[in-house]
Specification:
By secondary structure, the protein is an alpha/beta fold. The protein has a single domain, classed as 3-Layer(aba) Sandwich (Rossmann fold), CATH 3.40.50. The chain contains 6 helices and 6 strands. Strand 4, helix 6 and strand 5 form a beta-alpha-beta unit. Helix 1 crosses helix 4 and helix 3 packs antiparallel against helix 5.
Length: about 110
């Protein structure tokens, strides 16, 4: 299972990266990411498009906010996290959670 964070979803929209092409396991979105995208979509068209793209993914509820929600869902589901956020990657590595990032139109380990 892959857990995507806010910046990965927005980046995939901006760069027209089809996550399903590269991620062959289930892709899920924490409810904390949905909340962030709802707030960002008021000012950012890419966030608005990202929010609309979530219909194809399963939303996983979490009581945590922001990155803590991403970590919570990954830990509870033994998931890997898709993110380009260096700070979050550092936190995930400390917790032993695998990460992948999106760059140059591809998803990379």
């Amino acid at each position: 299972m892959y857990v995507v964070d806010t910046n990965a979803i927005i980046y995939s929209i901006k760069q027209k990266v089809n996550l399903e092409k590269f991620l062959l396991e289930e892709i899920v979105v924490p409810s904390s990411v949905v909340e962030e995208l709802e707030n960002l979509s008021k000012k950012d068209n890419n966030a608005k498009l990202a929010l609309m793209s979530l219909k194809k993914y399963r939303i996983v509820e979490t009581s945590k906010k922001g990155d803590d929600g991403v970590i919570d869902v990954a830990l509870r589901n033994n998931g890997k996290v898709v993110t380009n956020d260096a700070e979050l990657i550092g936190r995930l590595k400390e917790l032993g959670i695998s990460t992948v990032s999106i760059s140059l139109g591809m998803v990379r380990p």
